[in-house]
Amino acid sequence: DYQAAIAKGDFQTAERARLELVQLQKSYQAEQARLAIQEDAAKKEKALQEEQKKLAEQEKKRQREFQTAQMEAARAQEAMAKIANYTQQYKDLLMQKQTNEFITDTATKASAQRQTDSQLKSLVKEIQAAASVAKGEKGYDISGDIKKAFGQFFDKSGKPKACYIYNVVDNEWSMREYGDQAVVWQTAVNPIIAMELIEKGLCIRNNSICTKPEKLRKTGHLHPSTLVKFSSCKARAESRDFYAGAT
Phi and psi for 102 in degrees, rounded to 5? Predict the structure, then answer.
């Protein structure tokens, strides 16, 4: 319109067209500016939302870590309490076994030791059960700690183990005849026999007795002449004070 009015020489119409063109340019520029502001605001809002989302995720992570730490602390506290309780019970029973040794009456002493041994076996089985809880069952989360604390009750594969000690001396006989358990009696007799062999210059090799002193020297042991002579040494368990001291 502006160009046509100029060509016709209609300057009034051309001026109106020019003003309209200027207005359109200003409106277009204003719209572009508004769109740019909106786009920039949208970008900033998106960045802010992403930052808020990131902060929210970090907060959730911290909360989860805090809850996990609380659960771990509670689990550790429960495990420590359980282990401390088992340990104290085990120590008390071992102390009770030693206390039973001072009982003078043979029958009462034997009965007390059987009771204490039974309690020890029950405690060990309880510990083994607590350390072998299946996954998903109550107590599973602390079972590993119990197993580590009482590793002597488990084999290399982590399975509960039982150790059976077979004595060469009958416990009932030793308690009846000498008032001591088999493990005490057989431990005490061995050094007495060894001292008699030393006194007489004898040694045992391959289930046979060496009767010549020079053979004893060749074994690398001290010669009887360099040792104290236990002339009164006898392999008799009746000499209670002597064999207790030898042990």
Answer: -90, 0
Find the length of the chain. 247
Give the separation between CA 15 and CA 38, rounded to whole angstroms. Answer: 34
pLDDT class of 57 with cuts at 50, 70, 90 = very high
Q: Would you state the pLDDT for residue 107?
A: 86
| Phi, psi dihedral angles at 236 (to 5 degrees) | -125, 125
CA atoms within 13 A on the CB side of 223: 8
pLDDT in tens, 114-173: 899 889 889 988 998 888 888 778 887 888 888 888 888 888 777 887 666 666 777 788
Q: Which of 72, 71, 79, 69 is nearest to 144 (CA)?
A: 79
Q: Is the pTM of this model over 0.70?
A: no
